Amino acid sequence: MTTQALNPMKRRYCCLIALLLITATELIAAVGHPFFVNFSPATYGAHNRNFDILSDRQGRVSVANFEGLLCYDQSEWHVVHAPGIFRITRLYQDKKGRIWVGGFNVFGYLMHNERGELTLKTVFSKDSKGFIGEVTDIREEQGKICIETSIGTAGLEDHSMD
Fold first, then answer.
1. How many C-beta atoms surround the C-beta of residue 112 within 10 A?
2. pLDDT tens-digit series, residues 29-41
3. Can you point out the beta strands (E) in 24-105?
4. Which among 161, 117, 137 has a CA at the least distance from the CA of 51?
5. Are 122 and 161 in contact (CB under 8 A)?
6. CA-CA distance, 108 to 119, in Å (whole number)?
């Protein structure tokens, strides 16, 4: 065998190895990492304890937090405080897209005020109707919003508590 006969064979092996390396590198690069960000309490400006999370139809993220409600509009965080000092622990989006908020001695829903700012409209709170305990569940049954609390169950129809 001459060296000229080995050169085409070596070239083929080198090309094959190079092709395999390129393909393997592209496969590894295609896997990548999912887009995921952990926000610190310093970033969102509230307590570090979160209880519930919900994403609405517009892609805004709401987080039930020990200090209130955190809202992320894909660019910045906003904190919506409940009247007084009440933690928010439960979130629920009804069939109409309204977000209901419950926590310790507070229950209501999110709405925009006349300036377009997101606010919490309380239906029931310690300040307005007394002690309700901790809201443990919010659900919708036959068009009626029902809440379970640490002291019992109630239903909401036309914004008045049963």
1. 9
2. 455 566 677 788 8
3. 50-55, 61-65, 68-72, 77-80, 88-93, 99-103
4. 137
5. no
6. 10
